[in-house]
Amino acid sequence: MRFFRDLARHDRDESPAEPPAAEQQMLESTAHTLAEVSAELAGWVPTLRRLAEAERLRDLAIGHTTEINGGAVRSIIAARQLRGQYFWPSMNEAAWAMLLELFANRLEGKRIDVAGLAASTQIPLGSALHWIEWLSGRGMVVRDARGADESRALVSLTEAGTDEMRAYLLAALRLSPWVQ
Question: What are the φ and ψ backbone dihedral angles of 86, each rounded to 5 degrees?
Fold first, then answer.
């Protein structure tokens, strides 16, 4: 109510009286508190922007929006370049697809054979066998059996391969909400 009385006095061109010392101290304390709150809120602005961007990217990823911006694309590029730091600079897409599939299977407690891995990654069987051999040579995967039919051999990530995939994906998630 005091605000409206002061406003009415201002409208009548009356000059307001100097507030008493206690009231002045309260006003200064309130102003100081508001300045602190304002500074705290300003500190949250970058975090809130990142959260809003993450929400837009999630919506885009699940088809709720058609908006995309340069920041989202740059996050994908950065996550892709990060692979070279965790694995090798010229990571082949077929090898990467197989590592992702094997990691997902491991997390789900599933086992997969070479033929199933080739089918799920849409890589021709001959190429899958090549890349499994290549990944095996780098200590990332292991085939459980080598019988007459190589396509039926079970293939899985090694402990080292699992650790590298987990480390990379956690780093990529911190880098980019798009990867989530």
Answer: -95, -30
